[in-house]
Design brief:
This protein is an alpha+beta fold. The chain has helices spanning 2-22, 28-42, 49-70, 138-142; strands spanning 83-87, 97-101, 104-110, 122-129, 132-137. It folds into 2 domains: 2-70, no CATH class; 83-142, Nucleic acid-binding proteins (OB fold (Dihydrolipoamide Acetyltransferase, E2P)). The longest helix has 22 residues, at 49-70.
């Protein structure tokens, strides 16, 4: 029975580590797999399955939190200064359009819900949410 529990934890660890490569989960499955390997070593000393499962859960949570502290923190890119862009398509109120910003075509929405922005019009980029730029017509800011 002792050897079969060790083999069980080794197989569980290998499967969890392999699954991380198939379905990336920000190293959660990988950390659970490493925890299973640690419990496989502990199973040689402690034969109780319920205690092994409790240790596996504790190690998994501890490894995940330890990994989160070691990984670099992701920062959200924000546009600090207003920058110019040019509309490629008309942007209707509440509807997305396209703008040419820094040489690339971007999805854009008008930040003013009452304004219509014509195609080929200069706009000011005021913020970004994901891949969508929020723009205002240049003439709206100048008046």
């Amino acid at each position: 029975m002792l050897l079969s529990l060790t083999i069980f934890w080794l197989l569980a660890g290998a499967i969890l580590c392999f699954l991380e490569f198939l379905v990336p989960t920000a190293f959660v499955e990988f950390m659970m797999g490493l925890s299973a390997f640690v419990v496989a070593l502990v199973s040689l000393i402690i034969p109780s399955m319920s205690l092994q499962v409790a240790l596996w859960m504790i190690f998994s949570v501890a490894f995940i939190f330890a990994l989160r502290r070691l990984l670099p923190h992701r920062t959200v890119t924000t546009i600090t200064d207003a920058k110019e862009a040019e509309t490629l398509t008309e942007i209707l109120p509440g509807q997305p359009g396209r703008v040419l910003y820094e040489g690339n075509s971007w999805r854009a929405k008008c930040d003013d819900l009452d304004s219509i922005i014509a195609a080929q019009e200069k706009v000011i980029v005021v913020r970004r949410e994901g891949n969508t730029l929020f723009v205002l017509p240049e003439n709206l800011l100048n008046s």
